[in-house]
Specification:
The protein is an alpha+beta fold. It has a single domain, classed as HIT-like (HIT family, subunit A, 2-Layer Sandwich), CATH 3.30.428.10. 31% of the residues lie in helices and 18% in strands. Strands 1-2-3-5-4-7-8-6 form an 8-stranded antiparallel sheet. It is globular, with a radius of gyration of 16 Å. The two termini are 30 Å apart.
Amino acid sequence: MKINLAELFHYQTQKQCVFCHPSEELILKQTDNFTLLFDPFALLPGHLLITSKGHYGCLGEVPSALIDECTSLREEAKEMLRTHYGAEITRYEHGRAGHCIARAKETRSCHHYHEHLLPANLSLHLDYKKIHFIDEKELPQLFERFGEYLLVEGASGIKTFYRAEGETVAPHLLRTLAAEELGHPERHDWEAYKDCKMLLEGKRTLLSAEACETA
């Protein structure tokens, strides 16, 4: 039986934390504490996720002792995407702001750290108070002081912490902005998105590359 990974992910969101127990079919690489995944609802080929194995609500909650490990995996992933897609990388994270599951009030949450990496040079700007930061080790203090946030890093490498505490942030807001800028606004709502074409194209490219490098 052919497995539709998008439908499987939808089913798993109803049963368990999908980032604590990601499907093996989505895993590209793992370290001791983090996992690099293919986004099952990819906006474009090569759309990846980084998530923690421990259940932390956002990157601002990840212990500082683990940040270097996460940074190393991120830089490796970004270089992989640059190499195979010839594009700079856009990165974003909903730091507990704007739930990613919106279908029912009692399940409207997705508070397990996961950030997105897109092989595309996007300009994701928000009309919130913002703070530029240099090192991810600054995030715990920013999160403790300001609470919920949205994180965006563009091709320039400028990292922006948008203060979202007290704001009404729409579900998957940054995905919506990215989908619109990519010219595919119909892909904005992952809950209604069941086309695996972008995911499978990314898997073919990046898994083939991994196999060649380890051969």
